[in-house]
Amino acid sequence: MRAWLHRQSFKPDVTVAVFFGVVTIFFYGSILWTFYMSMTRSTLMPSYELIGFDQYVKLFTNYRWLVSCMNMVIFGVLFIIGTLCFGALLAIFADRRIQAESLFRTIFLYPLAVSLIVTGLSWRWVLDPVNGLQGLMRSAGWESFTFDWLTNPDRAIYTLVIASIWHSTGLVMVIILAGLRGVDNDLWRAIRMEGVPLWRAYLQVIFPGMRPVIASCVVLLMSEVIRGYDLVIAMTKGGPGIATEMPAKFAVDFYFARVNLGLASAASIVMLLISLVMLTPYFYSEFRKRI
Amino acid sequence: MSRAVQVDRPVFGLRVARFGLYAFLIMSAAFFLLPLLLIISNSLKPLEEIRQGNLLALPVRPTFDAWITAWKSACTGLECGGVRPGLWNSIKIAVPSVAISTLVGALNGYALAQWKSRRANLIMLLVTIGLFIPYQAMLYPTVKILSSMGLFRTYAGIVLVHVVYGLPYTTLLFRNFYVGVPDEISRAARMEGASFLRTFWSVILPISTNILVVVAILQFTGIWNDYLLGLIFAGNDNLPMTVQLTNIVNNARGSVSPNVNMAAAVITAIPTLVVYFLSGRYFVRGIAAGAVKG
Fold first, then answer.
1. What's the CA gap between A70 and B142, in Å, rounded?
2. Do A135 and B53 lie within an 8 Å CB cutoff?
3. I need a labelling partner for A167 at 20 to 30 A (CA). Which of A38, A186, B6, B114 fits?
4. Domains in chain A, please, with CATH?
5. Do residues B221 and B275 make contact, with C-beta atoms less than 8 angstroms apart?
6. pTM
7. CATH number of the structural domain spanning residue B236
8. Is the CB of A107 less than 8 angstroms away from the CB of B32?
């Protein structure tokens, strides 16, 4: 026994075991527990009597939940496409020996250091119809200028898109820029010799060659979309009405404000499934060779 | 060196294209700077100037009154102590959370890099998935686990949550770094009879300063900017700054004074911005490393 202990102290096994234990209990144990709760009648008080998938049926007949999911899709698609395009453009330009590159990069990246709460509040003030941009234009003499997206139920979701593009573009720029810097000079030389126009070179040669880099950008942005909570809280609180509700907010509201444990757990499990389905292709390509 | 590497990068030859390029970059810069500059400039205005409603106008008579109110007497619901207690709480939460999650992450990362087993990749997969699990799927059980330990809504509780939720991330970053460290270093230490922990502490940690700084900066930014975990797990006495800030802004009782709210927002953003500006290169390297392999 002593000898065994002595041998262990030279190996990483114990550390790995402890770490893996913590991950298993806190992450995977919690998920199982949440899944169990979602199969029960629990409301204010947890109940451990299983009732099958009733909570899921309730969830998908809940209008607010359906709106939340729809919002997440609209928000997610626009945000991911917008951030990718904007970030890729900035990365291309930053890769072209521009003056003051580091100044530009500092400016494009600083939003990443700002919390989503402050981001949301700032944009809420800028886009406020009375005191923000619209009021400003009107008081400057353009009486008919209208930019009331923040308080317009059909448009409010787009203000969230603007604010999160503002927050995340720098991230995409840095990652794609790192990829561009890794492109072989011979490739560029060949492209120049062939006389391929630049935009085609990027779209058909450079970016297709950087597929793993772009995939990790998409994965990161996607997990931001699914987790999106802070920004909604700071900017619209889900309103006007329920126009900007999101699944993450739905789950937290039903856990803590409306105290309906079963329904909230079902919502959380659906969120988890959505993220796993979205991420499967990525994990498959990352880990296929290794396991 | 980067110049030499880039020699073959095509450059827009035409003047017009070059001009367009800079026009685009400058407009983008304006887009990124706009919200921050606007709230800073408006937080320096006295209330009468705010009421005139010109968001873009620079303050005519700049004053720090709004900052002082935001700092020590703005109301968050029942209390009127400004963001000052929030700042202290955030520091109290962030410092140990960052230190512990970084150091433990380094130890785990090193252990995983050293662990020669066919199951190592499976563990990596499970840990990587852990990064992407929505918090909502773990919140309630975490509340229960902490309650059973008597730590729910306590200072130790919120630190523990930040450490545990941060571990997969820090571990992965360190593991990716240590996989690239030559094995000879650890082997030499082991030949001398140094135990695993001893090797980690006296041989590995001293050569890890760069990655330690990178991970600590990322963790600090994440923990300082956290809202949800603080709201749920910190308890009323330890609410972090982000939560105090939203309470001040959403406080219906106090008179509406946008300049105070904006000052409070700026004060909340200052610590992470300072870290970002002081550590630019590390910060960039960190997100690139964390993102590409994470």
1. 29
2. yes
3. B6
4. 60-287 (1.10.3720.10)
5. yes
6. 0.89
7. 1.10.3720.10
8. yes
